[in-house]
């Protein structure tokens, strides 16, 4: 198999995972921060995990 095809497939998969991870974690942070009813101790902990996952996604 040609190395260009393999690289193109890997790039497409990487971009898909990156996009889904960033959008999902951003939505978690957005919903918890903008909805007072969602701001429980458990949800704040989940928001902190989402923020740390965003930082990992960008590195």
UniProtKB/TrEMBL annotation:
<keyword id="KW-0812">Transmembrane</keyword>
<dbReference type="GO" id="GO:0043005">
    <property type="term" value="C:neuron projection"/>
</dbReference>
<dbReference type="GO" id="GO:0008188">
    <property type="term" value="F:neuropeptide receptor activity"/>
</dbReference>
<feature type="transmembrane region" description="Helical">
    <location>
        <begin position="12"/>
        <end position="33"/>
    </location>
</feature>
<dbReference type="GO" id="GO:0042923">
    <property type="term" value="F:neuropeptide binding"/>
</dbReference>
<dbReference type="InterPro" id="IPR017452">
    <property type="entry name" value="GPCR_Rhodpsn_7TM"/>
</dbReference>
<keyword id="KW-0807">Transducer</keyword>
<keyword id="KW-0675">Receptor</keyword>
<keyword id="KW-0472">Membrane</keyword>
<protein>
    <submittedName>
        <fullName>G_PROTEIN_RECEP_F1_2 domain-containing protein</fullName>
    </submittedName>
</protein>
<keyword id="KW-0297">G-protein coupled receptor</keyword>
<dbReference type="InterPro" id="IPR000276">
    <property type="entry name" value="GPCR_Rhodpsn"/>
</dbReference>
<dbReference type="Pfam" id="PF00001">
    <property type="entry name" value="7tm_1"/>
</dbReference>
<feature type="domain" description="G-protein coupled receptors family 1 profile">
    <location>
        <begin position="24"/>
        <end position="59"/>
    </location>
</feature>
<dbReference type="GO" id="GO:0005886">
    <property type="term" value="C:plasma membrane"/>
</dbReference>
<keyword id="KW-1133">Transmembrane helix</keyword>
């Amino acid at each position: 198999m040609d190395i260009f095809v393999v690289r193109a497939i890997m790039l497409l998969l990487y971009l898909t995972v990156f996009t889904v991870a960033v959008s999902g974690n951003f939505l978690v942070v957005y919903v918890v921060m903008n909805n007072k009813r969602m701001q429980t101790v458990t949800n704040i902990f989940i928001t902190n995990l989402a923020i740390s996952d965003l930082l990992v996604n960008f590195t």
